[in-house]
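INFO batch 0412 | record 1 of 1 | parsing
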Amino acid sequence: MKQDIQKIIKDFKSATLATTGPNGLNVVPISVVEVCGEEIHLYDFFMRKTAENVKAEPRVAFACWHDFVGLQIKADAVYETEGEDFERAVAEMKKRFPDRTLSGLIKLTPVEIYDVAPEASADNILSA
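INFO prediction complete | emitting C-alpha coordinates
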Protein backbone atom coordinates (compact mmCIF):
# COMPACT_ATOMS: atom_id res chain seq x y z
CA MET A 1 0.00 0.00 0.00
CA LYS A 2 1.37 3.41 -0.96
CA GLN A 3 2.86 5.48 1.87
CA ASP A 4 0.55 8.45 1.27
CA ILE A 5 -2.50 6.18 1.55
CA GLN A 6 -1.13 4.61 4.76
CA LYS A 7 -0.54 8.06 6.23
CA ILE A 8 -4.14 9.17 5.60
CA ILE A 9 -5.42 5.98 7.24
CA LYS A 10 -3.08 6.29 10.23
CA ASP A 11 -3.90 10.00 10.74
CA PHE A 12 -7.70 9.59 10.64
CA LYS A 13 -9.93 11.51 13.06
CA SER A 14 -13.19 9.94 11.88
CA ALA A 15 -13.89 6.59 10.25
CA THR A 16 -16.86 4.43 9.28
CA LEU A 17 -17.44 0.92 7.97
CA ALA A 18 -20.43 0.14 5.75
CA THR A 19 -21.67 -3.43 5.34
CA THR A 20 -24.70 -5.19 3.95
CA GLY A 21 -26.09 -8.63 4.64
CA PRO A 22 -28.72 -10.27 6.85
CA ASN A 23 -28.99 -7.09 8.94
CA GLY A 24 -29.46 -4.89 5.89
CA LEU A 25 -27.32 -1.87 5.21
CA ASN A 26 -25.30 -1.06 8.33
CA VAL A 27 -22.83 1.79 8.90
CA VAL A 28 -20.82 1.98 12.11
CA PRO A 29 -18.23 4.40 13.50
CA ILE A 30 -14.75 2.94 13.83
CA SER A 31 -12.41 3.93 16.66
CA VAL A 32 -9.33 1.72 16.21
CA VAL A 33 -7.59 1.15 12.86
CA GLU A 34 -4.17 -0.31 12.03
CA VAL A 35 -2.40 -0.70 8.69
CA CYS A 36 -0.72 -4.12 8.57
CA GLY A 37 1.18 -4.54 5.33
CA GLU A 38 -1.41 -4.54 2.53
CA GLU A 39 -4.32 -5.00 4.97
CA ILE A 40 -6.30 -2.67 7.17
CA HIS A 41 -7.29 -4.11 10.55
CA LEU A 42 -10.41 -3.00 12.41
CA TYR A 43 -11.22 -4.15 15.91
CA ASP A 44 -14.70 -5.34 16.89
CA PHE A 45 -15.66 -4.42 20.41
CA PHE A 46 -19.39 -3.75 19.88
CA MET A 47 -20.33 -4.70 16.29
CA ARG A 48 -22.66 -7.72 16.33
CA LYS A 49 -24.66 -6.69 13.22
CA THR A 50 -21.51 -5.70 11.35
CA ALA A 51 -19.87 -9.06 12.13
CA GLU A 52 -22.92 -10.96 10.88
CA ASN A 53 -23.02 -8.89 7.70
CA VAL A 54 -19.29 -9.33 6.97
CA LYS A 55 -19.56 -13.10 7.39
CA ALA A 56 -22.45 -13.21 4.88
CA GLU A 57 -21.25 -10.53 2.42
CA PRO A 58 -17.52 -9.76 2.57
CA ARG A 59 -17.48 -6.72 0.22
CA VAL A 60 -17.49 -3.60 2.41
CA ALA A 61 -16.76 0.12 2.22
CA PHE A 62 -14.49 1.85 4.71
CA ALA A 63 -14.08 5.62 4.87
CA CYS A 64 -11.66 7.63 6.95
CA TRP A 65 -10.87 11.32 7.03
CA HIS A 66 -9.35 14.24 8.89
CA ASP A 67 -10.61 17.70 8.00
CA PHE A 68 -10.74 17.76 4.19
CA VAL A 69 -8.39 14.83 3.57
CA GLY A 70 -9.87 11.37 3.31
CA LEU A 71 -10.36 8.08 1.55
CA GLN A 72 -13.16 5.73 0.58
CA ILE A 73 -11.89 2.16 0.41
CA LYS A 74 -13.87 -0.65 -1.14
CA ALA A 75 -12.47 -3.86 0.29
CA ASP A 76 -12.89 -7.56 0.78
CA ALA A 77 -13.30 -8.32 4.49
CA VAL A 78 -12.56 -11.35 6.62
CA TYR A 79 -13.90 -11.64 10.16
CA GLU A 80 -11.61 -13.60 12.50
CA THR A 81 -12.19 -14.85 16.04
CA GLU A 82 -9.20 -17.17 16.22
CA GLY A 83 -5.71 -17.59 14.85
CA GLU A 84 -2.38 -15.83 15.25
CA ASP A 85 -3.52 -12.37 14.10
CA PHE A 86 -6.60 -12.48 16.33
CA GLU A 87 -4.59 -13.60 19.40
CA ARG A 88 -2.07 -10.81 18.78
CA ALA A 89 -4.96 -8.32 18.47
CA VAL A 90 -6.53 -9.55 21.73
CA ALA A 91 -3.25 -9.01 23.60
CA GLU A 92 -2.67 -5.55 22.09
CA MET A 93 -6.23 -4.33 22.64
CA LYS A 94 -6.19 -5.59 26.26
CA LYS A 95 -3.18 -3.34 26.87
CA ARG A 96 -4.70 -0.33 25.11
CA PHE A 97 -8.30 -0.74 26.32
CA PRO A 98 -8.35 -2.86 29.51
CA ASP A 99 -12.07 -2.23 30.05
CA ARG A 100 -13.06 -3.63 26.62
CA THR A 101 -13.29 -7.19 25.30
CA LEU A 102 -12.28 -7.80 21.71
CA SER A 103 -14.95 -9.86 19.94
CA GLY A 104 -13.31 -10.11 16.53
CA LEU A 105 -10.76 -8.81 14.07
CA ILE A 106 -11.95 -7.46 10.73
CA LYS A 107 -9.22 -7.65 8.09
CA LEU A 108 -9.76 -5.52 4.99
CA THR A 109 -7.97 -6.10 1.70
CA PRO A 110 -8.43 -2.96 -0.42
CA VAL A 111 -9.84 -3.46 -3.91
CA GLU A 112 -10.45 0.18 -4.83
CA ILE A 113 -9.32 3.35 -3.06
CA TYR A 114 -10.71 6.80 -3.80
CA ASP A 115 -9.71 10.28 -2.66
CA VAL A 116 -12.76 11.97 -1.08
CA ALA A 117 -11.23 15.42 -0.58
CA PRO A 118 -13.17 18.35 -2.05
CA GLU A 119 -12.50 18.66 -5.79
CA ALA A 120 -10.72 15.28 -5.91
CA SER A 121 -10.93 13.35 -9.15
CA ALA A 122 -13.03 10.21 -9.31
CA ASP A 123 -9.93 8.17 -10.16
CA ASN A 124 -9.11 5.01 -8.24
CA ILE A 125 -5.86 5.99 -6.50
CA LEU A 126 -5.02 2.38 -5.61
CA SER A 127 -4.00 1.82 -9.21
CA ALA A 128 -2.74 5.33 -9.98
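INFO post-check: The CA atoms of residues 34 and 41 lie 5 Å apart.
INFO record closed
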